[in-house]
Structure formats: structure tokens, C-alpha cells
Design goal:
There is one protein chain. The protein is mainly beta. It is built from no helices and 12 strands. The strands form 3 sheets. Strands 1-2-3-4-8 form a 5-stranded mixed sheet, with no helix packed on it. It has a 4-stranded antiparallel sheet with strand order 5-6-7-9, with no helix packed on it. Strands 10-11-12 form a 3-stranded antiparallel sheet, with no helix packed on it. The termini are far apart.
């Protein structure tokens, strides 16, 4: 089985993440677009949701599902001022199960500035209450997820 980016995007993967239930895979691409695929419907090879960071003037470094499966969280850099940003999208309506009908392109992310340079990596704590970010400013940021 292979997933291929839609023709209008067509770029190589930079980050890949499985949802907690294993039904969805998020593919972050070098062209700053994140696609979510329903792996149960891979015969269509079409994403069920896409998030275009280029329209938000952001450069994507890494993307993960939140532990509850309802959000996508991306480590990014602003292409305007170079600041590291955490971008969060609500991508579906409940614990890992999105509505994967027609592809929907979304750009309505919540944005949190947290580093003076690009954020390259992020990880959730095992209990899902904290988010750690690491960036080019040589700092590790610890975020309380409930306040995001």
C-alpha cells in the first residue's frame, strides 16, 4: 500500500504520525502541507483533510496527533519573523475518528509562539497533559496542554 500526495501538492514527506487508534496517518510534507489519510480507505489515495501552512506563512518541521486524537499539532517557523510556533488544528469531532469524505483544506489553526527560532520537534507527555517543544534557540519549552 502506498500513499501519494494529491497532484496539486506533490511533495515529499517530512513527518509521519499515526493516530492513537491507528485508523489515520498524518503526513507532513516539505511544501508545508499536512494531509490526513484514513488508512481503511487507502484505495482512494485521497486525504480526508489537508492543512496548508504556506497560506499562514509558516514552515513545517514536524506534526503529531494529540493524545485524544482530536487535534493535529505542528512544530513550525514563521516565514515572516522566524519565530518558532506551535500550531494546533481541531481536525475532527471525536477521539481519532474524523469525517473522511471530501478533502477539506483547513487553515484555522491556534498559534502559540514559543521559541526565538524554528521549532524542530515536539512530543506529548505519556499522560497527555504536557507538550515539550525543542528549537534552534537551544531551549526546551514545556507547555500545559489544558491552557492551549
Amino acid at each position: 500500500m502506498e500513499l501519494k500526495s494529491p497532484e496539486k501538492y506533490g511533495n515529499c514527506p517530512a513527518s509521519i504520525e499515526w493516530s492513537t487508534q491507528g485508523m489515520y496517518v498524518a503526513v507532513g510534507e516539505k511544501n508545508d502541507v499536512v494531509h490526513v489519510y484514513d488508512v481503511r480507505k487507502c484505495d482512494t489515495n485521497q486525504p480526508c483533510a489537508s492543512f496548508d501552512l504556506s497560506v499562514q506563512h509558516s514552515v513545517l518541521h514536524e506534526c503529531h496527533f494529540s493524545p485524544c486524537g482530536q487535534h493535529l499539532v505542528a512544530a513550525t517557523k514563521s516565514s515572516v519573523d522566524g519565530m518558532g510556533q506551535v500550531r494546533i488544528w481541531r481536525w475532527n469531532t471525536g477521539g481519532g475518528g474524523g469525517d473522511c469524505g471530501e478533502e477539506e483544506v483547513k487553515d484555522d489553526a491556534s498559534v502559540f509562539v514559543g521559541h526565538t527560532g524554528p521549532i524542530y520537534t515536539l512530543a506529548f507527555s505519556p499522560d497527555g497533559t504536557r507538550l515539550a517543544t525543542g528549537g534552534s534557540d537551544a531551549l526546551v519549552g514545556l507547555w500545559d496542554v489544558s491552557t492551549m
